[in-house]
Fold each of these.
Amino acid sequence: MSAQENNNGVGLDRRGFLKGFASAAVAATLVGPREVLANQSSAPGQLGRELLPPPTITKPAGTEKYWQQVRKAFSLSSDYIHMNTGTTGSQPEFVQNNLAVYNRYKSEDPRDWAANLAADFPTLFPVTPSAMGARQLQVANAYGANPDEIVLSYNTTDACNLIFSGTPWKPGDRIVTTSFEHPAMMGPAAWARDYHGVEVVVIDIPSSFTADITVAQVLSWFEPALAAELGPDNKQYLAISEVFYKNGLRLPVAELCALARSYGAYSIIDSAHGWGMLPVDCHAYGADFIAGAGHKWLCGGPGTGIFYVRTSDAVDHPLPPFAVGSFVGYGNQFVAASALFNSRAFRPSSSTQSRGEYNTPAVYAMTDSLAFFSQIGINAIYNRGVALGNYLKGLVAAQWGPGALWVQQNPNSAFATAVTSFNPFAAKDEAASYGVMNAAISTILTNLAAEMPKVYGRSTTWRTSGLLTADNRVGFRISTHGVYNNYDEIDYAFARLVDQVNLSGLAQHD
């Protein structure tokens, strides 16, 4: 008998216990009149009452009708063109419902809410090996990892903080990173430098990437820094983004991790744009740590992420020093030294996952979104998003020439992403015109967001050298997500953008 049918022998439905109050008026003072008047029998289709599976897509796979049906799974309206998934995604409607269900069950029975969900929805709420473990297994299967290597985190920043706080830094250690990193990586690296005497080597990344850039060229940027002499008791880390949030370029992560290993270095990968957009394979990457977001391309909702901590392949490639990252379970203040001191004898999926009360309903909802993505096909979503992005790059090149693109379409698909960055102005590479162009692009984006339909994109800025104190380059950044963007939207948004660029009065590329 399920918990819904019997509540510890009392015979009262958990969700219907307010019916026993003397009057609806009394109940309304506790839960609100709308809830009291609602049907409390948990009828199917009532928002926030029943867990829902991912919607089934019935149209022929790969067709525009197929992707139109996928789009209907999201609550994005037809008069809203969302092209800033690189900042935040849109949750599928069934995931929004499930998040409400998780929170409702947790509030109704804080002790046994997970067991109750498993009893009421056994096919949709697995609890083997545990409720959290089932979700970690799901993520591991989707992204080429072992379940004990997966931590469901809050976001990329949270995971990066765990990595750096758990690494026993020493003066003379080295971090090799780039000038294009997000503050989620830059901040912890600066902290390690300032508080622990770690050397931070910043590789200046070119602003423009032509179609003929090669993997070998990219590796050549990093090799001299990794090959530099290091103290006998020191370690070094390669700390880089898989996809630069500034311009959407994807780095060849597997080759870079292999290069780092060849010089005895460990690797930290910021894959904020990876989960949900790319077919990530943690083991094939060879990375030691991968931090990523759940709220962006995975459309998992705010405050969610996926954090990979390598525990595999330890014989051939020894594990890097790491002390849990979360210190809740690190040791015993009455026993010195703590059991985990200088030890990797812990499972990240439990020891790092456990860091006080965390938002389990949110991370469960994120994995529901992953279930939908896996049903569609992670590779299919990636290919669709890249195809849309390449279509947009083609429009940009046709309008202003390929030189307007900060990252041109490369014949090597290893560089491809669903992000397009460009600057249509003739002064694109002139630092003296940066302020004028930045203001114009900001105005254009504001105007597009004020129209109907609303077009939501963004801009990014950066500096051409780490020696500079201020940014001197700017570009539009447009995200084309395979699950809810389409060619018609791109055509419309691009036409409106061209009109706005013309109104700016600034000279354009030809």
Note: The two ends are 72 Å apart (CA to CA).
Amino acid sequence: MRILITGSNGLLGQKLVTALRDASAVDMLATSRGEDRSPDPLGSHYRAMDITQAGEVDAVFDAFKPEVVIHTAAMTNVDACELDPVACRLQNVTATEYLVRAAERHGSHFIHLSTDFIFDGENGPYREDDEPAPLSVYGQSKLDAERIVIDSRLSRWAIARTIIVYGIAEGLSRSNVVLWAKGALEKGQPIKVVDDQWRMPTLAEDLADGCIRIAKQGATGIYHLSGPDGMSILELVERVGAYFHLDTSVVSAVKSDSLGQPAKRPPRTGFILDKARTDLGYSPRGFEAGLEVLRAQMVTLG
């Protein structure tokens, strides 16, 4: 099975690469903008590809002829998207259109990563067929990209929506809320954390496993892939502190609107995972079990 990954330098991309690079019966091509940042270089299994350039996309697809595409690359900084909607649309919508058109030509099974931010957070947790109502430029861009996939001429497609992906890998350009929480608590300085946003954080390895299950089973349609445990961001930080034996007395609760962030966040998302569990055999780890994976990797990475 020839699998092409976009965004291979990102957190999910690196976890997919780790899981697939030595897998039997899989020929993997990792792609990202710029140089390969894998700790163990991929060599011929990596190609630089700017997904906002249709010519580059077509050239890579024509050379590799992927049977499966796992599209993880995106502009995911919610406030940056709000402040630069043109860049957000180019990277999240236009680029997805280029990839979908190339996948149509090659008959690829197209697996698109999306987000809980397509929902307004008024009635979470959500099922796959609940009505989207994004509150931000980022959320709208991901919904628009979903619609490109759904309305395409792709013979097979799947959308994998997820929530707050956390984990660690070498050379990441962005942190995530769990690493931020651990680092902030270790400094022992006062931090403000919102208590009016509720999420179900997702271990990157579990999300990668869900995507690979979709690919190997040829599954189609929309799947919700998150962690199983729901919590406020405040509780998330407190649970990180408790797990790593860090003092959480420095944490004070605040409301989202006090932070002055450019993008509005949905108050309560979360996913109902029944479909992914039943159809795919998806079995994500609980939050503390995920933190144990993270802790072991931190020891390995030094």
Note: The longest helix spans residues 85-106.
Amino acid sequence: MKLRLGVIFGGESVEHEVSIISAIQAMKNLDEEKYEIIPIYIGKDREWYTGKLLKNIEIYSDIELLKKYAKNVVLTNRKNNFVLIKKTGIKRIVDYVDLILPIVHGTNVEDGTLQGFLELIGIPYVGSNVYSAAIGQDKVFQKQILESSFIPVTKYIWFFDNDYKENEEEILNNIEKLGYPVMVKPARLGSSVGISKAKNKEEVKESIIDAMKYDEKILIEKVVDNLIEVNCSVLGNYEYQEASELEEVMGVDEFLSYRDKYLGSNKTKGAKGMASTNRILPARLDDKIANEIKETSKKVFKVLNSSGVIRIDYLIDKKTNKYYVNETNTIPGSLSFYLWEATKKPYKELLDDMINLAIRTYKRKKRKVFSFETNILSNFNGLKGSKGKLKM
């Protein structure tokens, strides 16, 4: 019997379209002899849809047409069966799901929000849990945790938007102490959205205003000199970790931007998502530093309690050979399959590994105690001091 695999993608996120590209890539590479693939698309309006037509990228050019022919559903637990129920009209069961593969990017989905919902209804899912997903989305949390584990990160400061409005000069002085140029980032976005490089005070002020359009939490990082950007993917769980080959990414812009990652130089290239990025694979590094980065990647994965496949992005000063963790991506664009193909692991096999890890995680969790059979409220006779009544 095939495993009924629900692939969730989309969501109210600035990385909505990126998620669609990544999900369709994955659905085309899943082994259809093992899995019944059930696409589950979350629109920007937060409505959920399913239907075979959602496997075709062309349908997303006309969202109103998509909504007309796809089924509007909700995912729920009905007597320990996970079902997609039609939301409008007769609320009948549309499909059954055994396991969820989330391929979502950005706020409101990748940041633990979706994982929390899946935990709440009890359905097993692939990838990092609520805690590691939330940390993976927040670049400030990441840096604070990695620093505490003696993992190298760049010099930085951070603040909330109201702090900047109230103490602009103090914050600008602190940025001055970091030294220009700096990178200005919304703390909880991905795909390089809202990120800019600032070379002086006027530019940093403009960049902060732009970043605050996307997030109330802002990160400022010192730019690494003589920069090489390198990425490494890690597969596993807390028990074991396996590192991929390293890639050296080559951006058209001064840093690897959203355009570099997803738009490409033409429409065909952009449709390939992260797989279309200009890269040198394997990265042009000597064996010593390459192996150090792979070992550091496995440590980062474990420290953040990640699961499934993640990607860790590094900044390297090519003169000093010092490297710094830039950020982690708990559900990386294209699931970083191209990094695993370089290790002779085909995308189909990578997806199988991720799904098998999720099944093992779910079985292990089922053996843990999360609640007690006894009901301490069974003999409840009212609240003392409230005269037995609850005031609303």
Note: The chain has three domains: 3-125, 146-150+225-361, 155-222.
Amino acid sequence: MEAIMEKLKILADSAKYDVSCSTSGVGRRNNGRIGNAHAAGICHSWSADGRCISLLKVLFTNKCAYDCEYCINRRSNDFPRASFEPDEIARLTIEFYRRNYIEGLFLSSAVEKSPDYTAERILEALRLLRYKYGFAGYIHAKIIPGVSQEILHQIGLVADRLSVNIEMPNSESLALFAPQKKPKQIFAPMRQITNTLIERNSLVGPGTMFKGKDINSPENYLGVQQISSETKSFRALSTNAGRETFAPAGQTTQMIIGAGGESDKNILTTSENLYHAFKMKRVYYSAYIPVVKSDILPDISTAPPLAREHRIYQADWLLRFYGFSVGELFNSGDENLDPDLDPKVTWALRNLDKFPIEVNKAPYEMLLRIPGVGAVSAKRIVRQRRVSAVKFDDLKKMGVVVKRAKYFITCVGRYYGERRFEPDTIKNSILQMENGLQLSMFDNNWKALEAGARQEKLSAAGVI
């Protein structure tokens, strides 16, 4: 068991750069209380209804045949290596589950020997977990680019979610930073997963169109020509297999931010294409953390571009849930998002001719474009105004961020923002409000820390 725990320590540490979940890094014994937390490999994910779910996040192996410039597990990097046996990861997962450490498994891997060799061992581990140990919990499995169609299909029948990491937003960056990976190896499994989901799980109907093209056809995507015979073969495989559910939670992918010279517009354009062409559940973004020395990567002392990652996530949210397109988020000359403002605010300031909007008359689609109004609060506004007019004082109760929204709306004909309705005035007011909020939060936290320190001193002195 000690050997397995040593492997877990190595392989959980190697998995922390995959951002599909956030590593908790917390280890606690219950000491008579209810519940435990194990630091190695435990991460948090969130369900659609907002519940926090603990997952065992680990690599199957970090022995990699590839030498990708950006990767901590690259072949030429000198650090501890380990591989699980299929039964080891299966037993580890079920024992963690029985102890209430976790609710599911997030299993990724480096490429040991070849994609098929590694994927076959992952498949064996997942089958043991499902059928030998009877585990019915959540499993997220990473698919290695270049894996055969048959193995991918079988993994999809035992996993809940699949993901193929694209890593780089264009073929030029992929060729520079990961020359052993080919675009076709990445997009072929993505297409197979999408088509299988369409046929088996009725994800979308046949003939779904995007930009005038059928997404089910093997068309030129991001400069990659899909092969018609490949598409037909895995369509036949999907149709002739049994009736088990294939990857019911869909597929995701990940892109690295800040390793190459790609612009925000380039990154988000690729994401927009992935959402439409492959029906991605989500694209994750990982601010590049310099972990290896390289002549073509940022210096090892460079700070990760976390603020940029945050803005890209905000823009991604607008693409997925608010009806925006990439073209709307950028001016003709802009290639990057405004680092100081939420992309929705930036868009609204560039389109002040559409504002202020009367909340009691605007269609739902336009309500979604008001800064400070979310999907839930927009629906509440629509429901409320069927009964009676929505007043300004009602908005906060509905979940609207009134401090931001007031500059772009009217309520019952009245405007509550600045007297000067112009971009610079509104922008400065919003920036002052947000900076003041951050300072206020900092002051409150500092006061709480000071109060805690005083409490400890009084306790130590025997005063309380």
Note: Residues 423-460 form the longest helix (38 residues).
